[in-house]
Amino acid sequence: MTDLYLDIESTGLYAIVHRAVCVGAMRGGKIEYFIEKDEKKMLENFLAYLNVDDTLIGFNIGFDYGFLVLRCLKHKLDPSRLIARPRIDLMDIVVRLLNGSKVSLQTLADFFRISYTPASGKFAPEMWEAGDLDAIRHHCLSDIMLTSELHERLLSLLNEPATAKQLQYLRDLGIEVKEGLTKSEASKILDGARRR
After folding, report:
1. Which one of 26, 51, 97, 172 is most buried, counting C-beta atoms within 10 A?
2. Model's pTM, two decimal places?
């Protein structure tokens, strides 16, 4: 699998009424921006960029992912290339570590002493209206670089083996346990089982 760091900028929080204005992606240290006046063309270009072995990594990736899927559907684009990609949400990992407390990227950058130029996404609509594409790209770049650094710092947690207690609980629930299951994967399975 190949890590693909993802961040989007949009004109608002609701994919039903707002649009994506920029999709930023980084694979192998190379950053690509998809930014077009024509949202459909931008989404087509981004979908074509995705590889079958990409794992999408982001901070609150569910927002970016869901927004992109809905915008693809609006433009009658097949989002299956996006939907088929596994995802790692660094915010989910941090929330688990903090027993349910949510924090911002800025707070994590400060905590880990990672250089970060904060730029609030709430200004993306104004930047878009003003035609300030460089500012939008800069914000995307800033978030992608911080997400990449956070992923490196949290990687050991992603690969930590499942605990004996987790494995036993899964077996007690009648869930087949695969060899090499990580603590993170076991937590996701258990969370899903609790929701049923």
Report:
1. 26
2. 0.79
